[in-house]
Amino acid sequence: AQEVHKKMSLRASVTSALFLDNVRVPDANRLPGVKGLKGPLGCLTQARYGITWGPIGAAIACFSETTEYAKNRMLFQRPLAATQAVQLKLADMARRITLAQLLSLQLGRLKDAGTMQPTQVSLAKWNNCRMAIDIARECRDILGGAGITTEHSPIRHALNLESVITYEGTETVHQLVVGREITGINAF
What is the pLDDT of residue 11? Predict the structure, then answer.
């Protein structure tokens, strides 16, 4: 495994490139009753379900910190939160976070019932990652010049979400999975 250096995202963990050339897996070590990629991809579906929750936490952290900042940051003898633009942005963030929570909650209910479908997981991962990265960027903007400093978390979350939106299937892959479900045509 080649370790990846000079990362700007997921800096708290080691990232490596893993190469498996000419690997043969003995029959005794194969997944029982699984043919092709169905078994490994089934594991990905379960992992992707878990990933639908992570971006919600990042979005909430950004939202909470930015809301407190806006309520305490004084501009022209008024808190930043007293402006219509900031209140509209914060209200929209609360709406998008709540929708993502409800989506993942319903997906969990389907998972518990054994009826969760991979396309539903793709939709939730795509939606929740996009929601969180957009909120992190919007929070960074509300924080103004301070938004690019390590004093505040939105820029860190935005950088980490750039990885989350990519791993376990890129946003484009999940869009194509949903597109295939809608049209019945595999475009990838």
Answer: 85
Domains in the chain with CATH codes? 49-183 (1.20.140.10)
178: exposed, middle or buried (C-beta count within 10 Å: 0-12, 13-18, 19+)? middle
**Rounded to an integer, what distance in angstroms lies between the CA atom of residue 14 and that of residue 4?**
8
Q: What is the dihedral of CA 68, 161, 102, 40, to 10 degrees?
A: -160
Q: What is the pLDDT of residue 44?
A: 85
DSSP state of 152: S
Q: CA-based diameter of the chain, in Å? A: 73
Q: Per residue in 57-100, pLDDT tens? A: 999 999 999 999 999 999 999 999 999 999 999 999 999 999 99
Q: Give residue 175's region: left, alpha or beta (phi > 0; psi -120 to 50).
A: alpha
Per the residue annotation, which of 65, 151, 168, 171 is the catalytic one? 168
CB count in 10 Å sphere of residue 184: 7
Q: Which amino acid is at 11?
A: R
- The CB-based long-range contact list for 5-10 (8 Å cut-off, 24+ gap) reads 8/159, 9/159, 9/160, 9/162, 9/163, 10/160, 10/163
* Distance of alpha carbon 2 from alpha carbon 14, whole angstroms: 10
168 catalytic? Reply is yes
| pTM to 2 decimal places | 0.88
One DSSP character per residue, 4-26 reads P-S-SSSTTS--EE----S----
